[in-house]
Amino acid sequence: QVQLVESGGGLVQAGGSLRLSCVASGRAFSAYTMGWFRQPPGKEREAVAAISWRTLYADSVKGRFTISRDNDKNTVYLQMNSLIPEDTAVYYCAADFGFASRLKTVAEYDYWGQGTQVTVSS
């Protein structure tokens, strides 16, 4: 069983930056693919980025967002730069045992955090 706790969300102006963190409980953290998803108001949850043996990004965030992990701290990060109002969403951390060579879907992840709100004002 893995428990995930996100933090770092908030309100930021367009062009600004935020860094999200997700701390995982449990063992063998390095063996999990860690993903970030977001769910804008009234829309479906979508994959943003993932990290296992490589990093993967949705086209909408390439060049602006960076995913990283610290296996010693059981933590995955999402550095978000050049934020735009369209990035406004609840951001979720997710974990799936094993490695990934593509962005996995919502259904392919086993564990989820509670989410953290990111609001980008224009």
Task: Summarize it.
With 122 residues, this protein is mainly β. Helix content is 0%, strand content 50%.
Order of helices and strands: EEEEEEEEEEE
- Rg calculated over all Cα atoms: 13 Å
Report the helical percentage.
under 10%
Q: What kind of sheet is the major sheet? A: 7 strands, mixed
Portion of residues in beta strands equals: over 45%
Total beta strands? 11
Helix/strand-derived category reads mainly beta
List the helices and strands and how they pair.
Layout: E1 4-7, E2 10-13, E3 18-24, E4 32-39, E5 46-51, E6 55-57, E7 65-70, E8 75-80, E9 89-97, E10 111-112, E11 116-121
Parallel strand pairs: 2-11
Antiparallel strand pairs: 1-3, 3-8, 4-5, 4-9, 5-6, 7-8, 9-10, 9-11
Protein described:
By secondary structure, this protein is mainly β. Helices cover 0% and strands 50% of the residues. It is built from no helices and eleven strands. Strands 2, 4, 5, 6, 9, 10 and 11 form a seven-stranded mixed β-sheet that branches. It is globular.
